[in-house]
Amino acid sequence: MNVGVAHSEVNPNTRVMNSRGMWLTYALGVGMLHIVLLSIPFFSVPVAWTLTNVIHNLGMYVFLHAVKGTPFETPDQGKARLLTHWEQLDYGVQFTSSRKFFTISPIILYFLASFYTKYDPTHFILNTSSLLSVLIPKLPQLHGVRIFGINRY
C-alpha cells in the first residue's frame, strides 16, 4: 500500500497519454504553434509550415525519446528511471491507440508541410529528416535500444 500517493497507477506515465482530452489538447497545441508562426510577419507560409513541423518533431523527440524517468515517485524500484516516456507508454505494449496516434500525427503534419511548401527540395529535406528523427525511435525493434550507448544512463 502506498501511503500519501494520490493516484492508483504504479507509474502514471504509462496512462497519461490516454487521459481524457489529451489528444485534443495535443492537436490544439500544434495548431496554436502554427498560428503563432503564421502571425510572424516575415515568415512565408512554406517557412511557417516547415518550422511548425520541425519544432513539433524536436519537441516530440525530446519529450518522448530523450528524457528518461518519471516525475512521480513510483514504487517500481527504479525500473522507470531507465526508460524513456515512449517506452513507458501503455506499459510498453506496442500498437495501442495512443502509440498509433503519436506515430500518425507527425506523418500527417509532414504531409501538410510538404503540400504547403509545394515540395520545395530544401523544405522537403528538412521535413523528411525531421520526420525520420521521430519515427525511427518509435519502431518496436528499438524498444529499450540505446544506439552507440547514447542516453544509456
From TrEMBL:
It is found in: Membrane. GO terms for cellular component: endoplasmic reticulum membrane. GO terms for biological process: regulation of ceramide biosynthetic process; sphingolipid metabolic process. InterPro entries: ORMDL. The chain crosses the membrane at residues 23-43, 101-119. It comes from the Eukaryota. It is a multi-pass membrane protein. Its main location: membrane. Pfam families: ORMDL. Keywords: Membrane, Transmembrane, Transmembrane helix. Plays an essential role in the homeostatic regulation of sphingolipid de novo biosynthesis by modulating the activity of the serine palmitoyltransferase (SPT) in response to ceramide levels. When complexed to SPT, the binding of ceramides to its N-terminus stabilizes a conformation that block SPT substrate entry, hence preventing SPT catalytic activity. Through this mechanism, maintains ceramide levels at sufficient concentrations for the production of complex sphingolipids, but which prevents the accumulation of ceramides to levels that trigger apoptosis. Belongs to the ORM family. Ceramide-sensitive subunit of the serine palmitoyltransferase (SPT) complex, which is also composed of SPTLC1, SPTLC2/3 and SPTSSA/B. This is ORML1 protein. The gene is Ormdl1.
